[in-house]
Amino acid sequence: MTYHFKLESVLRIRCLEEEKCQKSLAAALHLLEQESLHLMKLLELQKRAELELAEKRQMAMTGPESILHHQYAKKLSDRIRQQQKKVLEADSVCHTKRELLHEALKNRKVLETLKNKDQENYNAELNREEEKFINEIAINRYLHSGR
Prior knowledge:
The chain is an all-alpha fold and 147 residues long. It has helices at 8-58, 63-146.
């Protein structure tokens, strides 16, 4: 007689759900990393544009050049703000995915704990049956040898 956990299929499904959550979190973390990298590039571009503007101001910049630089700086600031929003959204998605993974992990562990306890009970019952059988054999031997 072998042990069979009645909720084994549920446990397998919980493991698959946990795996799915892990993959989903990995994808979200990858997206967050990409968005953060893009933000860093935009900030570096802004820093270079500010340095370039400071150099041109020292060299007597013309009015149209000043207007162009100002417009470029404004558009760059807008892009940075949009990218910061994307980073915050990606971070929020990562947080949500982490919580889902944590919940899936808890669900799987609950079933694994239940399986372990069920197996321990099964093994204990087998031991009791075996002990009962051995006791019956010993009693029968005693009874037969005593006559």
